[in-house]
Design brief:
The structure holds 2 protein chains of 2 kinds. Chain A is largely without helices or strands. Chain A has helices at about 105-110, 120-125, 135-140, 235-240, 245-250, 295, 345, 365-370; strands at about 130, 215, 220, 315, 325, 330, 395, 405. By secondary structure, chain B is largely without helices or strands. The chains are: A little secondary structure, B little secondary structure. Chains A and B meet through loops of A and loops of B.
């Protein structure tokens, strides 16, 4: 009970519910007669309508007055059911779905992938090889470091809401008009839940951002497929891409500890600053052997800053680590990435393997590591087996290759350098940042 | 001094004829409401009114009354002293029921026309609800033996200990004081004769109310679901208990300190400091005006009208009547505005987002 006069600051109204995707589209069949977008399609103020509970009925009221529980805390990650998450009742597949909404993944929607070949719902996206673990998000937001920045979040909240505000999120795909400024953003930072992020905060803020291809052949660029030839001005495309760096690093930064039940014990910290990763703000050492559209653009910048979603899916992926199935205008041609030993299929989308360098075969990396003018281990060194060592588990034989292929994950991961060499061939150690 | 019988009658008649509009207790000649013998020149004086048609009957009414609740309170409002709750033709309600000729409780017209979702199905005004029978939504009790009545055990007004509606209200119309705070100690001292409910009554029953002319509803900022006796919302909970005071039905865990399961009532919005509710009634900052569209209750029991909210502790309390009319409205769920059609192209005509009075970021 209040005991004093309360002085409360009014909130800043950042957007209108009616402008949101839900405000203009939700339409639960059980709520026939209610206008599209009406609150009742998600909320039941009294857990009943005309004396009965509308479908889907659970027999009891649910937190936040929504028609089903927000999240089943014991849900099996990667095998989520529609009933595990309130959002999946629409953004899912199966007979329990009340209003099916098609949501292709990032690789398709913005990366130029073929519609229909990849997950068609958010639920399906989560039920792949890798995924944002909803239970881990719940833990992070309630008892982890996320709790300090998101007092609005409770143990009854929906983990999806960590990144999305359902009353503000806008449809950000479907027609070219949605890319017009300001952007139609679907995301809100966990630490700023009551505002959209990405409407005016875009990748244009990063001078080193080069919008990747959505289609290499036509030189269509992400996110909307506008053609910008290599060497052309990509700033327009950057201005259409939400600032995913600012968004993702709200959680994935060097301050927060993110516990993971899938990748224990904790996720690697992400440092996208000028003293962090080269894929982020850190300048390159000398040069890079890189493919278009970066090759033509590298003369104009000392560093490329990538968007997190240039490589990662936000919800889930058929590859490990939520790696996209299509990057820089090409599908992951070689294979799906199933271990950190075998990341070449991803790297070769932008970096030159031996074939792209005109030196050897595809999916082999001798040129970059030993032959390029900027090679860290030029020569190559005399003692190959120190690193190309299958017995020690450092490498895997590859048909036709002169040496077993060293596992990429020995050196290349977020916040890494080649300190692995210190325990293998210390005289070859360069100290270079290797991601 | 010895007064003649005729003089006594004249004096009493004079006193009764005096009007006290500020008090608004019944006034005027006794015969306006009572008949001593149900007979005048050999004709019965007791009557009923149905669909505007008066029918006299030889069966006398209790309390020597000319007619019953419906007979008195049937008509069209124009701001006069008698509150009409049933109009025989469609009232002017408008988008929010604040600018036409309906009162705070709305009007039974729509439910009387067969729309069960648009009003309380009070006996004599409408048949039993086709879907619910006599069992109110949200009730955990067995169905009552009788259809809802205006007053008494099965009604909303008067003493709940009395089965008969008239008996339940006996004497209360003579003892009402609309200038005083109703403390709920008697039926007459209860807000609108809702036994035990506190509040301050607007003199014209909210005929075209404004922020400076409206009822003052009593509410409580609860810390437990079973609290808040005397509030207007707790009165609704007498029948719709799971919507107000069913344990574990309104809030997860500790009431007011956790997540709502159903829309809260008897909860002060000041508790949600820094949230969208701070902008109640679309006014940014201190001095937020009281909304007659989606009103709030207060714990203040003085006769000072709450023309603004967030002026003192517990003066922004959500109540059932923040969203609903007690008698009836044109809209499903007896809502104060056309929620079902929202959002729509022509807001204010085809729909209205009264929710946004409180949920200010959900417009």
């Amino acid at each position: 009970m209040s005991s004093a006069v309360v002085v409360i600051a009014p909130p800043v109204q950042a957007a209108s519910y009616r402008d949101s995707a839900h405000g203009s589209a939700v339409d639960r069949p059980a709520m026939s007669g209610y206008a599209i977008g009406n609150c009742a399609h998600c909320h039941e103020m009294h857990a009943s309508l005309a004396g009965v509970e509308p479908e889907p009925s659970g027999g009891s009221p649910h937190p936040y007055t929504v028609f089903a529980d927000n999240f089943t805390s014991g849900a099996t990650a990667g095998s989520y059911l529609v009933t595990d998450n309130f959002c999946f009742y629409c953004h899912g597949e199966g007979f329990e779905v009340v209003q099916a909404v098609a949501n292709a993944d990032y690789s398709t929607t913005f990366g130029g992938g073929s519609l229909g070949t990849l997950p068609q719902s958010i639920l399906a996206a989560f039920n792949q090889t890798s995924y944002h673990n909803l239970g881990d998000i719940q833990t992070f937001m309630t008892t982890g470091d996320g709790a300090a920045m998101s007092s609005w979040y409770t143990s009854s909240s929906n983990p999806c809401n960590a990144c999305h505000n359902p009353h503000l999120a806008k449809k950000n795909f479907g027609s070219s008009s949605v890319f017009s400024a300001p952007l139609a953003s679907a995301i809100s930072k966990p630490g700023d839940h009551f505002n959209l992020w990405g409407g005016s905060e875009t990748m244009a803020a990063y001078s080193g951002y080069e919008p990747p291809y959505a289609d290499r052949t036509s030189e269509a660029r992400e996110p909307d497929g506008t053609v910008v030839a290599a060497g052309g001005d990509g700033s327009g495309q950057a201005a259409k891409t939400p600032d995913y760096i600012g968004f993702c690093t709200d959680c994935h930064n060097t301050t927060n500890t993110i516990e993971s039940s899938t990748l224990p014990p904790t996720l690697r910290p992400i440092d996208w600053s000028s003293s962090g990763d080269k894929h982020g703000g850190l300048s390159r050492d000398v040069g890079i052997d890189i493919r278009e559209p970066f090759a033509s653009a590298q003369a104009g910048t000392t560093n490329f800053v990538l968007s997190c979603l240039d490589c990662h899916e936000p919800h889930g992926a058929s590859n490990i680590m939520l790696l996209r199935s299509r990057v820089n205008g090409e599908d992951m041609g070689l294979r799906e990435v199933s271990t950190t030993n075998d990341m070449g299929a991803l790297c070769q989308r932008c970096h030159k393997d031996d074939a792209a360098a005109g030196y050897g075969s595809a999916d082999q990396w001798r040129y970059i590591h030993h032959e390029s003018s900027d090679a860290p281990y030029p020569g190559p060194p005399n003692f190959c087996k120190g690193c190309h060592n299958t017995t020690a588990g450092y490498a895997t034989p590859v048909a036709g290759a002169s040496q077993p292929r060293i596992h990429c994950g020995q050196c290349h991961f977020h916040n890494s350098d080649d300190s692995w060499m210190l325990g293998v061939r210390s005289e070859e150690y360069t100290g270079r940042t290797t991601f | 001094m010895v007064l003649t019988r005729a003089a006594c009658i004249c004096l009493v008649g004079l006193l009764l004829a005096m009007t006290w509009p500020a008090w608004a207790k019944v006034s005027g000649p006794c015969v306006n409401c009572h008949t001593m013998h149900n007979s005048q020149a050999g004709s019965p004086m007791a009557y009923t009114v149905s669909s505007g048609v008066t029918t006299y009957t030889s069966t006398p009414n209790k309390g020597l009354l000319n007619t019953d609740c419906v007979g008195c309170h049937q008509g069209s409002n124009s701001g006069g002293p008698v509150p009409y709750v049933l109009d025989v033709s469609q009232p002017t309600y408008g988008a929010t029921g604040t600018e036409g000729d309906t009162l705070a409780g709305g009007n039974f017209y729509w439910v009387s026309q067969g729309n069960d979702r648009a009003g309380h199905n009070v006996a004599g005004l409408a048949g039993s609800d086709v879907a619910h029978g006599n069992l109110p939504p949200g009730s955990t009790d067995s169905a009552p033996l009788s259809q809802l009545t205006c007053a008494g055990t099965y009604g909303c007004h008067g003493a709940s200990t009395e089965i008969d509606a008239t008996v339940a209200l006996l004497g209360s119309h003579h003892a009402n004081d609309m200038t005083a705070w109703n403390d709920g100690s008697t039926v007459a001292k209860s807000y609108r004769f809702l036994d035990g409910v506190q509040g301050l009554e607007d003199s014209d029953y909210e005929y075209r109310p404004t922020s400076s002319a409206h009822n003052k509803y009593y509410g409580a900022d609860r810390t437990g679901e079973t609290e808040s006796s005397g509030t207007i919302s707790s009165h609704c909970g007498r029948c719709h208990n799971d919507f107000h005071n069913g344990v574990g039905e309104i809030s997860e865990g500790v009431f007011s300190n956790n997540v709502w399961l159903r829309h809260p009532t008897d909860f002060d919005m000041s508790n949600a400091a820094g949230s969208e509710y701070a902008a109640y009634n679309d006014y940014q900052g201190v001095g937020t005006p009281y909304s007659v569209i989606s009103p709030v209750a207060t714990a203040d029991t003085t006769t000072t009208l709450n023309q603004a909210v967030y002026q003192q502790a517990d003066d922004a309390i959500v109540m059932c009547l923040s969203c609903h009319r007690a008698h009836g409205s044109p809209y499903d769920g007896i809502l104060r505005w056309n929620y079902k059609n929202w959002p729509c192209e022509n807001e204010g005509t085809d729909c209205f987002n009264g929710c946004a009075i409180c949920h200010t970021t959900k417009d």
